[in-house]
Amino acid sequence: MTQEMATFAAGCFWGVEAAFGQVKGVLSTRVGYAGGRTVNPSYEEVSSGRTGHAESVEIIFDPEVVSYRELVELFWSVHDPTQLNRQGPDFGTNYRSAIFYHSEEQRKIAEESKKKAQESGRFGGRKIVTEIVPASAFYPAEEYHQQYFAKHGRTCHL
Question: Total structural domains in the chain?
């Protein structure tokens, strides 16, 4: 079986993980921190806004079942990519919208999809502020954050 990785930041990672975890072809998800400077940060450090990290979800998927393009389309639908450094009641750079690409092909798909989403008018003409940047180190969040909704039966504003 072929496996690929995708990494997205779209606000509170609990809800983002839950949304992607329901997709056929997604083999695993884990929440964590990406896009920042601090090595192996804690939740408290990331929440302070001083690490540069965003709450993110790392996804392992089978591209023969679900394409990266389909995952990017879901990404646009689970949050408001026009809100700079916030989603709903959560605000700060750690809640920014970002696609962390793992290959040149992923970058191209993400850029094309962002352009298409912007031109679609589905965001009321507001500018999409999503960063599309190379994936760097991903630091898994503490265990109590992993599969949070599955463990606790809750949902969030996504």
Answer: 1
